[in-house]
Amino acid sequence: MVCFPVCVQCGTRSNPCRCKVVGPTLGFVAFAVAAVVEWPVGAVVYVFKHMKGRRIMAHPATVVYPRVNRAIPI
Q1: For residue 66, is pLDDT > 80?
Q2: Where are the transmembrane segments (predicted)?
Q3: pLDDT tens digits for 4-37?
Q4: Are 53 and 45 spatial neighbours (Cβ–Cβ below 8 Å)?
Q5: Could you give the CA distance from residue 71 to residue 24 in angstroms, rounded to a whole number?
Q6: Please, what's the b/e burial string for 39-66 (b: 16 or more CB within 10 A of its CB; e: otherwise)?
Q7: What is the pLDDT of residue 40?
Q8: What digits encode the pLDDT tens for the residues 40-61?
Q9: For the chain, percent helix, then strand, then coil, each to nearest 5?
Q10: What is the pLDDT of residue 3?
Q11: Residues 34, 61: contact at Cβ < 8 Å?
Q12: Where are the beta strands (DSSP E) in the chain?
C-alpha cells in the first residue's frame, strides 16, 4: 500500500467550487523535488555566503510551490 499526500485548499476564488486539490498537491510534489536538490546546494553555499544560501534554501517554498499552485486552478 502506497500513501500519497493530498493537499486541499478551500476558500479560494480561482474556481467556482472554491476548493483546490490538484494544484496544491502538484505544488507539494514540485516543492519536494526542488527541495531535495536545492537544500543541500544551499547548505554548501551558506558556508561561504549566508544570504545567498538562505535564498537558495527558501526558493522551493517562496517560488516553486506558489507558482505551481497558482498555475492549476482546480
Answers
A1: yes
A2: 28-48
A3: 667 777 777 777 777 788 888 888 899 999 999 9
A4: yes
A5: 10
A6: beebeebbeeeeeebebbbebbeeebbe
A7: 96
A8: 999 999 999 999 999 999 999 9
A9: 65, 5, 30
A10: 66
A11: no
A12: 9-10, 19-20
